[in-house]
Q: What sequence folds into this?
């Protein structure tokens, strides 16, 4: 089958309510060649559905997975401004974020707080957990349509504000997030990327950045709810974790938090509403070892559900998109 094959001709496509599209592939032991052959058709499926899970590729290691990622992407990205540590397997190929297995990672769009973010996310399951751990997805235009109009309008006017306090205990250190321990280089990056920064007396770094909560998809022109307002908000944390962090760092010293664009706190009820709308629009399919998943990062939010047992999912961020090209609703002025 050539790379010009239509999506409909791609073997066995399984479309079920409440699940992402699942494509059953026959790679005959050479997943990179299969990916190269079917690249255009797979990307057409992502354009049509927002995501696709490919089953049957038999992915087992970082080298083979990286080769598949490279065949499918226009270009792999180096992560900047990470909120939690990852292991780097090779250029552009990472582990999933280190996050407690018993805690969910709420729906979000990868690096939606940066000025250049991935248009495509690639996931590969090298080892499936014994229970849970799905990378669930939600359609962003549907989420936007389901949110109260007044709330959307406020976020469109003001955007959202991400505050971060980098330390060496919780989340990524500033050296991990910016790829350097050089304060001058960090400051230059922040100025170039519209990030306010302040060094604390103990040497810790505090940052603030305001971003649009709604953008337009480059391919379709549809408005998308595109942010990490709920995921990086204090009220999404488990109550005991939230209580501990506030006790240790204070309400203003949390490793990360989100606010309305004017700086007002986002109430717990708003975060609960956002997460309930995400859940109402969630599609999930349990990982099987060897699976591959492609996700349109603007149209489709993703999450990671709690799990038990070893779970190894490799990640690549690809096809960089500039926020300025997506009709942002708030102005961002970089230095």
A:
């Amino acid at each position: 089958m050539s790379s010009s094959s239509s999506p409909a001709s791609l073997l066995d496509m399984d479309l079920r309510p409440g699940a992402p599209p699942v494509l059953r592939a026959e790679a005959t032991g050479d997943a990179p060649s299969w990916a190269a052959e079917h690249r255009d058709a797979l990307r057409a499926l992502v354009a049509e559905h927002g995501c696709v899970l490919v089953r049957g590729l038999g992915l087992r290691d970082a080298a083979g997975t990286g080769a598949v990622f490279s065949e499918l992407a226009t270009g792999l990205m180096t992560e900047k401004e990470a909120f939690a540590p990852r292991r780097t397997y090779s250029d552009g190929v990472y582990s999933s974020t280190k996050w407690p297995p018993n805690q969910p990672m709420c729906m979000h769009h990868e690096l939606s707080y940066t000025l250049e973010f991935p248009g495509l996310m690639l996931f590969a399951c090298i080892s499936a957990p014994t229970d849970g751990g799905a990378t669930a997805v939600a359609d962003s235009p549907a989420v936007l349509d389901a949110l109260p109009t007044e709330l959307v309008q406020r976020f469109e006017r003001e955007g959202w504000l991400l505050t971060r306090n980098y330390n060496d205990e919780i989340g990524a250190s500033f050296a991990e997030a910016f790829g350097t321990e050089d304060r001058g280089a960090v400051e230059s990056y922040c100025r170039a990327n519209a990030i306010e920064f302040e060094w604390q007396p103990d040497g810790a770094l505090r940052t603030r950045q305001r971003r649009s909560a709604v953008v337009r998809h480059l391919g379709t022109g549809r408005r998308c709810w595109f942010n990490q307002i709920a995921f990086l908000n204090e009220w999404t944390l488990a109550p005991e974790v939230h209580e501990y962090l506030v006790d240790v760092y204070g309400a203003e010293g949390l490793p990360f938090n989100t606010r309305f664009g004017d700086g007002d706190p986002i109430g717990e009820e708003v975060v609960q509403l956002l997460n309930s709308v995400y859940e109402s629009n969630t599609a999930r399919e349990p990982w099987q070892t060897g699976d591959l998943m492609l996700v349109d990062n603007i149209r489709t939010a993703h999450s990671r559900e709690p799990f038990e047992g070893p779970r190894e999912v490799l990640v690549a961020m690809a096809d960089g998109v500039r926020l300025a090209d997506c009709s942002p609703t708030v102005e961002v002025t970089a230095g």
Notes: Residues 246 and 254 are 7 Å apart (CA to CA).
